[in-house]
Known about the structure:
This protein folds into 3 domains: 3-284, Alpha-Beta Complex (2-enoyl-CoA Hydratase, Chain A, domain 1); 319-498, NAD(P)-binding Rossmann-like Domain (Rossmann fold, 3-Layer(aba) Sandwich), CATH 3.40.50; 504-713, N-(1-d-carboxylethyl)-l-norvaline Dehydrogenase, domain 2 (Orthogonal Bundle). It is built from 30 helices and 20 strands. Helices cover 48% and strands 11% of the residues. The strands form 4 sheets. An 8-stranded mixed sheet has the order 13-12-11-14-15-16-17-18, sandwiched between helices. Strands 1-2-3-4-5-7-10 form a 7-stranded mixed sheet, with helices on both faces. Strands 6-8-9 form a 3-stranded mixed sheet. Strand 2 (8-12) and strand 3 form a beta hairpin. The chain is of the alpha/beta class.
Amino acid sequence: MSFKNKILSYEVDGDGIGLITINMEEHPTNLFSPDFMETYFDVAKKAIADEGVKGVVVTSSRRMFMAGADLKMLEKPIADARQFFENALLMHRNMRDIETGGTPFVAAINGHALGGGLELCLACHYRIAINDPKIKIGFPEIKVGLFPGAGGTIKAPYLMGIQAGMMALLQGTNHSPSKAKSAGLINDTVESIDELVPAAKKWIVEGGKALQPWDDKSHKIPGGGLFTPNGAQTMMGGIGNVRKITHGNYPAAQYVLSVIHDGLQVKFDRALEIEARYFTKVLMSKEARNMIRTGFFAIQEASKGKAKPSGFDNYEVKKLGILGAGMMGAGIAYVSAYAGMEVILKDVTLEGAEKGKSYSVGLLKKRVSRGKLTQEKADQILSRIHPADDPNAVEGCDMVIEAVFENPDLKAKVTAETEAALAEDKIYASNTSTIPITLLARASKRPENFIGIHFFSPVDKMPLVEIIVGEKTSDRAIAAAIDYVVSIRKTPIVVNDSRGFFTSRTFGTYCSEGGFLLEEGVPPVMIENVAKTKGMPVGPLAVTDEVSLTLGLHVYESDPNPNKPEEQTRFYKIGKMMVDEYGRHGKKNGKGFYDYPEKGKKRIWPELSKIFNSNVDTLDKETVGKRMLHRMALETYRCLEEGVLRSVKDGDIGSIMGFGFPIYTGGALSYIDYVGMDVFIAECDDFTQRFGNRFMVPQSLRDLAAAGKSIHDFRQDTSSDVPQTAEAVA
């Protein structure tokens, strides 16, 4: 028998060994999808039924063996949970038919085998991979709110042991082939692709058995089974750690433990049924829906530059100029040089520019020491960064990014002197975090080429870049900025002009709400801990220290608006007191809301509780948590309503990637649906009465709720002008 379609091909050689080669021509990569499974299982069963076939090798003709499940089939809500569960059981039965059919199957892994792709390999009796450290083998499902549902969750502990299997599933760890072999996920490696299929066939010819470890009565789980002292202790520790880390916000993590705990006590086929039940349950959860929609699809689309205006060729930045070699400028230089660009790192003095380059030296040295980069490659990257103190050094640059101190006059000065050396058709960007781009563009002779490119600190780690469109910014400049951001492997969102734009403006409400809670008597430790239990990476007091209280005062004082919102003034007074009366400027100063000892961990400044009269009974933890998250969600909605945000997706992506809004909620706008729009509005109305007008709900959100709609049904009111004039945004 031979077979070929747009999904895979099958042929049998002269030795009676079948070769299934996966090549899903209508997809960008091989996917564990319904159409694949139908074809694959049909071919596999026919091979098993063929007495002339001694064994089957499964491989891929694509660079990637298989990327995983096709998440598009999981994107929409499950209409019939029972039917989905039955389909999952059918998939398990088909895999078990292969595992118990008596014909040995070998997975010849020539590229990434992830998620469903790895589970396909685990249904084979033997697994061989090319020993290429770039190949990834693992279970990434937890990162989108799921867990392996094609047998991987229960098979991992059989192969790796309870502890290692649990860690691989809960952390979504990717293994290189050599590490996957050591861990027990695969059986062997070869050095080249030419050796791969022959090695797989050799295993069959030399008597490889069609017997899985979970069907082998002599097999013992590495490190001991569930009822051994080590297994029981590992399980108990895992339960405690998952609760401590996730705070119950991520159902998938809890279900992984349930599948392992329940599944290792019963026969394997019953364990697969348990896995299928929990997989159906997790897929129906709000958390998984949110993480698939935003954490996978929306971020993936944004990372590919979907927001780029049509009609423009790729704008290649071969040479980049950076003005200001402080932390931000130095970080931008590093990621740009790493991406292959020549970088002119200009500062007031050559010494300052050299110091900025030393930041890259430190980062590269660390990567070399960890084996992630060769010294030769590091030297090449460093050779592309050219320190300078002459404004004319940017001549010949394709783009310039200004990253000097947040002062409009200073920024105007460097704009004028830089444009004198920059070709007229090149792009000039400002990395300002709060000052309106329209205002800064007044200093430019070509405002159509002037745009905001707002990075986050530290630049080398933070994945988001906020692109800000001024009143006169052209589509060509937007397209060029997106091309640049994508080329340095960051994720861009495009927003319209406003003071603080979207991210700084919204994240500021998190910091200020933390300050108000402190002022009202909520103990600082409670504020910080509740924020983290809700899913924020850092508490509001700690992050204010990171940014520095001094910078917050400067931003407030540099805003020319004489009628600032009451909450901004209130938070300013808290910061002013901390700085002026107690000399506490933030982390850089070694003292802010926290103390930062030279040796040891940071700790809450003990005097805070006395200064702000902490009272543990002031508010319950649910109210504390909701005040912080509701406040950010409301401000994000206002940015959407005002036209600062261009879409709901941008608000969700920006909040998750820019300031760590909990991903299980789907982002700061999806959070409104996550809570329930009617519940959210009612709680904000209550908070308005109790805590102030900053919690007032816009009428357009009430209208959405009254119409029974989702936040994703929001449509921009194109009849009103987006506030993009210099006066409006200032």
